[in-house]
Amino acid sequence: MKIYTIRDIAQQAGVSVTTVSRVLNGRPDVSKETQAKVRKVMAECHFVGNANARGLKQADQAIIAVIIRGRNNPFLAALAEEMLLCDPAGKAALVPEYIDEQDDEFLCALNLLHRRRVAGLIFVGSRIDSRCEVLADVNLPMVFATVSTLNTPMERAASVSMDDRKMACAAVGELLRRGHEHIAVFGGSRSGQDSLALRALGVQDAFLNAGVPFEEDRYVLTRFTLQDAYSAALNYFQRRPDTTAAFCMSDTAALGVMRALCDLNMRVPEDVSVMGVDGIEIGRYTTPRLSTIVQPVKEIARQSVQVLSDMMKNHSPARHVTVEAQVEMRESVL
Amino acid sequence: MKIYTIRDIAQQAGVSVTTVSRVLNGRPDVSKETQAKVRKVMAECHFVGNANARGLKQADQAIIAVIIRGRNNPFLAALAEEMLLCDPAGKAALVPEYIDEQDDEFLCALNLLHRRRVAGLIFVGSRIDSRCEVLADVNLPMVFATVSTLNTPMERAASVSMDDRKMACAAVGELLRRGHEHIAVFGGSRSGQDSLALRALGVQDAFLNAGVPFEEDRYVLTRFTLQDAYSAALNYFQRRPDTTAAFCMSDTAALGVMRALCDLNMRVPEDVSVMGVDGIEIGRYTTPRLSTIVQPVKEIARQSVQVLSDMMKNHSPARHVTVEAQVEMRESVL
DNA sequence: GTGAAAGCGCTAACAG
DNA sequence: CTGTTAGCGCTTTCAC
């Protein structure tokens, strides 16, 4: 099967390569007849054009890299998917780059910059820490989705996120209001200024508001995988069976925690209430259904793309958008 | 921030572009000193090389497209991820292309062929049906993962899969052996020759072997999403509460079915046993843990890449590899 | 409205 | 071991 080039098409249509190129790019300055003729030949040959050649020429092309850190994270995957749907008219302007949670998204960005000459960057599920220094002298439009860059070293980048601190406070506040005092928190590192650190702060706020002291040793450090959260919970609840509620900073972690409780013969929610964060789909189908903070995936996606477009097209300054999330109490909390 | 070209590097290192190119591609024919010098400059500039230019030149390059149909399918996602790990030494030879379950993977392949000049194709989670005709005169090495192309129109393509028919038979056979006679089957279209059709055949085999008649109206047609399976199950079990077991042709569907049963006040497994297929991770953490047919993800991934490599390098004929899967009875079956 | 020609950044002969 | 040179397929001035 032959792969045709623009030259083949030109020849078969009896026009020049320039004309074919123009048709390919939807330029207006081609006569209707010529256009029709060329299109016909292109269709017959399944011609699509070589992306490499095109990209080589149009180095200034508006291609946007979407870097998703953590492919096995259903929340981020859903968010990324939603973003790709914002891709205006299949212009293939958004190219996803899935990387491992262990990988360095900033190095990846730098790499992409050189490798693909991207003109804009969206980070999905990034942490903001010192690693970001490698982007110090990169002044491309960038936006961070799900984490605020306000008051961080990346402030010149835009961001779209929920108010992590407020929402964590609201969720834990509700737990406290329902009479839970011995609340375990399954979270990540509290240093830095990313969403996890903010959520930890929100937890503190909630305890402060309620006038209940937070016992430090109820903060359980864990990675947000089923396995890790499961192990962490198994370990924790054996030590502290007096706990009546768990606030987990991700739904995936919450699912692992729920299973651990079950294996310890503790019932959810009768013995221990469990909350997650994110609002992934499976949480609506587990038994019991998982209570959580539902992030507005579609809106975060839409706004992220919007903000970046503005920066690229109109040189708008970096905005920091806060979207509204929702504490949703389902069956896993009493 | 400047983006350097191979020429800039050459200049700064005081060598020719060819030499830089050679270093970039890890050719052996460059002296240690020159190499070190060039590498140093490259590192300083974060030089990575322009993928477009490279791809343009090496049209014959061994770049393999991995087409994953159904991003929200955790099983396929895990499989694809595993494949990418087979990528020999980060040669970036495997490029993933995630498409929607509704999209046409064959059209996508054709497109990729032109757009990126791929030299090989791996289909992950494809159905084999008449749409595949568009690839009729494409004779690139191709392999289908998780579905056998034996006795199908795509026979000239290689395939790596479990014996769907045998495994479905084994799973349902075990259900029958445990005394279940009224077994519902949540599956897909039975026309065609893809894995779903084969599994349906396997179900028939099991009933035949057991001498139990299979009641046609217990075959429930559903898409394999949580929502669809949930609705289908809700609907089905209200009509047929006499059912004591459900065989679902995907774990995701099984999870939806389990939740539906719960909402109908039927207990799993006490009232109804539930089985899935695939062996996705979350199935080990649900309550009850999901019984399933565990597909050997790593092996399917490894073999798929292997078989394709063989075809590309040694022009080996298309092989049809069958991998061993495992019926794993966990808590959801009595 | 259309075409000729000059590269985009890189690789691969082909010489030395 | 290293450099010179001719394109890969496409877009884009600049003429006509």
Which structural class should the secondary elements of chain A be placed in? Answer: alpha/beta
Amino-to-carboxy terminus distance of chain A: 64 Å
Rg calc of chain A: 25 Å
Low-confidence parts of chain A, pLDDT < 50 over ≥5 residues? none
In the sheet with the most strands of chain A, the strands line up as: 2-1-3-4-5-11
Relative strand content of chain A: 15-25%
* Assembly classification: homodimer
- The CATH topology of the largest domain in chain A is given as Rossmann fold
- CATH homologous superfamily caption of the largest domain in chain A: Response regulator
Helix content of chain A: 40-55%
Which pair of chains forms the biggest interface, and how many residues does each contribute?
A-B, 46 and 45 residues
Number of helical runs of chain A? Answer: 11
CATH architecture of the largest domain in chain A: 3-Layer(aba) Sandwich
Throw out a few tags for this protein.
elongated, alpha/beta, six-stranded mixed sheet, 334 residues, homodimer, DNA-binding, 11 helices, 16% strand, Rossmann fold, six-stranded parallel sheet
Question: Can you describe this structure?
Answer:
The structure is a homodimer of 334-residue chains. By secondary structure, chain A is an alpha/beta fold. The first copy, chain A, folds into two domains: 6-162 and 296-324, 3-Layer(aba) Sandwich (Rossmann fold), CATH 3.40.50.2300; 164-295, Response regulator (Rossmann fold), CATH 3.40.50. In chain A, 41% of the residues lie in helices and 16% in strands. The first copy, chain A, contains eleven helices and twelve strands. The first copy, chain A, has a six-stranded parallel sheet with strand order 2-1-3-4-5-11, with helices on both faces. Chain A has a six-stranded mixed sheet with strand order 7-6-8-9-10-12, sandwiched between helices. In chain A, helix 8 (195-210) links the parallel strand 6 (183-187) and strand 7 (219-221). In chain A, helix 7 (164-177) packs parallel to helix 8. The longest helix of chain A is centred in the last third of the chain and has 18 residues, at 297-314. The N and C termini of chain A lie far apart (64 Å). The model of chain A has no long low-confidence stretch (mean pLDDT 91). At the A-B interface, helix 4, helix 5, helix 6 and helix 10 of A face helix 4, helix 5, helix 6 and helix 10 of B. The structure holds a DNA duplex (16 and 16 nucleotides).
